[in-house]
Design a protein that fits this description.
This protein is an alpha/beta fold. The protein is built from 16 helices and 8 strands. It has 3 domains: 1-72, no CATH class; 75-349, no CATH class; 351-499, Rossmann fold, CATH 3.40.50. It has helices spanning 2-13, 22-32, 45-60, 64-69, 77-91, 107-138, 175-191, 200-214, 216-248, 262-280, 287-291, 304-338, 374-388, 432-445, 459-464, 469-484, and strands spanning 100-102, 252-254, 301-302, 362-367, 393-396, 419-425, 452-457, 490-493. Strand 6 (419-425), helix 14 (432-445) and strand 7 form a beta-alpha-beta unit. The longest helix is centred in the middle third of the chain and has 35 residues, at 304-338.
């Protein structure tokens, strides 16, 4: 459902150039805000509305479900990777050449070292993340930012501890996170190859980027669960293959070294195999006995006890920890699937304007950085009334100049507005020094709990660059990037002159 909610939002934000027209939205608003057809505990109105709009999108593009399926985690990856790890472990040479186990260079010790390094890296990443979280929480709270389009804070912006939160660099913490992010960007590019003639490349690209960004935590959790499971299966199957070979062949154990003598080898083996020896009761030989196991003095001894010690050590410090880490990652996957972290929690909530058809609502639109024409004002009022309800009170303030937004008289009175919408023009290149200044000023003057929205009129820009959808997509993406820094979704509208 989360994927459909984001898809519908991207289609709506494309405005008149997108696949949904005003008639579609009005039809979905009427159907979505009515009482649920089933039990009273049915899905929220916003979810019902998104379902109907999704049906309309599928009617117009029957290939859309298949395209969406290509953006999801492929179900075949897990079984193939696990089966490959098991086969690789069974086929691997866990002993060494000629059936001799060099106690200082057994391949199983390399598996142990690798797993310990991975666990140490994971622990260090978790510690860094915990430090960043504690560091952010120890700082004074930033001024309350505005909410998203329905009054809820949007994850991923300043409130979520992003780049603007004033914290230390927020690196994702692991190579896996960076790999998933790179794969998401790459997949977003190849999945957006649709016909640019209709402008679909724009809204689909926007959705693909939003979805892959929103689903990145779930993708990372799935990848962690899969990698830890595969590592546990690999180590376990190596042990299984070793024991199966031991039924038909005799393995000999010994050691050889250029730099180490018997006492040093005894110390090293006690450190590595000591826990397994204590747990199993299999004693480790002393330095004198180890001296007799040098391969330059003889063939060594039967490797059975050493294989048991190595197997217990691998099980304790490789198989079991990796299995536990896989279970923890799988639990994270279940939690994220049950409560998907949408970038805007308001997507799941009922529309603000649904109850009472807008009765008691006062919606204030504030153009920033451009002079809105009379015809565009009428089109804006019609669009505001459609989204807020026919009974809502609509007001359009005089245009404000970004350089005057910080002055006491630079902004209109916001205290009596239940909903404020700042209106930009797509023809302007988004800049933090100008448009960002407007947003900050409005956010600081907003009444706590009142939603602030950002609309961008693309009528003039679309008319100027008709037939160049790539220019439109690039400019819309630039506005989205700027507004994301202020935890605001971008809604693109087309304020054509009204009749």
């Amino acid at each position: 459902m989360a994927q459909r909610l984001l898809l519908v939002r991207a289609a709506e934000q494309a405005g008149e150039l997108g696949p949904l027209n005003r008639t579609d939205l009005e039809w979905a608003d009427r159907a979505g805000t009515g009482p649920p057809a089933g039990p009273a505990s049915g899905p929220p109105a916003a979810v019902r509305r998104a379902e109907r709009l999704f049906e309309r999108l599928v009617d117009r593009d029957p290939h859309l479900p298949r395209w969406l399926a290509g953006l999801r985690w492929p179900a075949w990856v897990g079984p193939i990777v696990i089966a490959g790890a098991g086969l690789a472990g069974m086929a691997s040479d866990a002993i060494g050449p000629a059936g001799r186990i060099n106690l200082l260079a057994a391949p199983l010790l390399g598996v142990l070292a690798w797993n310990l390094a991975v666990m140490a890296s994971t622990g260090a990443a978790s510690a860094r993340q915990a430090w960043r979280t504690a560091w952010r929480h120890s700082r004074p709270a930033a001024p309350a930012s505005s909410a998203s389009s329905h009054g809820e804070p949007q994850a991923g912006g300043p409130q979520a501890g992003g780049p603007q939160a004033g914290g230390p660099p927020s690196g994702r913490g692991s190579w896996l996170a960076h790999a998933v992010d790179r794969a998401a960007r790459w997949q977003s590019r190849i999945r957006s190859e649709v016909s640019p003639a209709t402008g679909a490349v724009d809204w689909r690209s926007r959705f693909a980027a939003d979805w892959l960004r929103a689903s990145a935590p779930l993708t990372r959790a799935r990848a962690r669960a899969l990698l830890h499971s595969a590592a546990a299966v690999l180590a376990g199957s190596m042990l299984a293959g070793l024991y199966l070979r031991g039924l038909a062949f005799e393995f000999r154990a010994g050691w050889e070294s250029t730099f180490l003598d018997a006492p040093a080898v005894h110390t090293l083996l006690s450190l590595v195999l000591g826990p397994a020896s204590a747990l199993s009761g299999i004693p480790l030989p002393d330095a004198g006995q180890l001296a007799l196991l040098r391969f330059d003095r003889g063939p060594g001894e039967n490797a059975g006890p050493w294989i048991h010690l190595l197997a217990i050590t691998i099980a304790l410090f490789a198989v079991a920890p990796r299995a536990l880490m896989a279970l923890a990652a799988a639990q994270t996957v279940r939690r994220l699937r049950a409560d998907f972290p949408l970038p805007d929690p308001a997507l799941r909530q009922d529309p603000v304007a649904a109850p009472g058809d807008g009765v008691g609502q006062r919606v204030l639109a504030v153009p920033c950085g451009w002079r809105i024409s009379a015809s565009a004002s009428r089109a804006l009022a019609d669009e505001l009334r459609r989204t807020a309800g026919s009974a809502a009170e609509i007001a359009i303030a005089a245009s404000i100049a970004p350089e005057q937004a910080d002055e006491p008289q630079g902004l209109p009175v916001l205290s009596d507005a239940s909903r404020v919408i700042v209106v930009f023009n797509l023809s302007a290149t988004p800049e933090r020094e100008t448009h960002g200044r407007c947003l900050l000023a409005l956010q600081h003057r907003m009444v706590r709990g009142a939603p602030l929205e950002a609309w961008i009129d693309g009528a003039a820009f679309a008319s100027r660059f008709a037939g160049q959808p790539q220019r439109l997509a690039e400019r819309q993406a630039a506005w989205q990037d700027l507004l994301r820094e202020y935890s605001l979704p971008a809604r693109f509208v087309h304020l054509e002159p009204t009749a």
